[in-house]
Specification:
- The two termini are 22 Å apart.
- Helix 2 (33-50) crosses helix 6 (121-170), helix 2 packs across helix 7 (175-189) and helix 5 runs antiparallel to helix 6 (121-170).
- The protein is mostly helical.
- It has helices at residues 3-22, 33-50, 53-66, 74-91, 106-116, 121-170, 175-189.
- It is 77% helix and 0% strand.
């Protein structure tokens, strides 16, 4: 999901809230914790049935990455790579062994560890290409988690509406409970 899509979603949410407020409503009317528990909890549960936990957690981490700027500047990474190349040329590739523990970027660290261990260049290239391919395949699965959640959430919202209406039917004699049940029903649908 790119930042334009996120901006569009945020703008739509603002429009919905503004419309509610213009009609004399209150934001608290759509902030029903029970409805949120039903929809979000049910959606997460349905997604966890379809995907392994490690894939779900990778998607959650990726979601957090959408809202945070990358911490490493690409120019700094290039300068770091050039520095390693210069040191390796002047002092030999083994001289980089002492710096491996300080490298935070996993792909770079693995590449340099293999190079320091004496892996031939052709084999090193093949190994790192396989690593990139593996990472690409793992990254391709992340959107599938969100697509599944988008497919499940409307159904779970309808289930929340039905549960709210069941609550209403069980408490028709108590008007306060009827109001809560209808609120859960309509908010879960939204």
């Amino acid at each position: 999901m790119d930042k334009g899509t996120i901006g569009g979603i945020a703008l739509a949410a603002v429009g919905i809230v503004a419309g509610l407020l213009l009609e004399g409503g209150r934001v608290s009317q759509i902030l029903q914790p029970t409805a949120a528990m039903i929809v979000f909890g049910g959606t997460v549960g349905a997604v966890l049935v379809q995907f392994p936990l490690h894939q779900f957690l990778a998607a959650a981490r990726a979601l957090g990455g959408i809202f945070v700027e990358p911490t490493q500047d690409p120019d700094e990474l290039i300068a770091e790579l050039v520095g390693y190349a210069r040191r390796a040329r002047k002092r030999g590739i083994i001289s980089l062994d002492s710096e491996l523990s300080q490298i935070g970027e996993p792909f770079l660290k693995k590449s340099l560890m293999l190079a320091v261990d004496g892996t031939p260049a052709i084999e090193l290239r093949k190994l790192m290409e396989l690593e990139l391919e593996f990472q690409w395949e793992a990254d391709e699965k992340i959107p599938q988690v969100f697509e599944a959640a988008g497919g499940f959430s409307p159904t779970i919202g309808i289930i929340g509406a039905v549960l709210g209406l069941i609550q209403v039917m069980q408490h028709l004699q108590n008007i306060d409970e009827v109001g809560k049940g209808i609120a859960v029903a309509f908010v879960a649908t939204i």
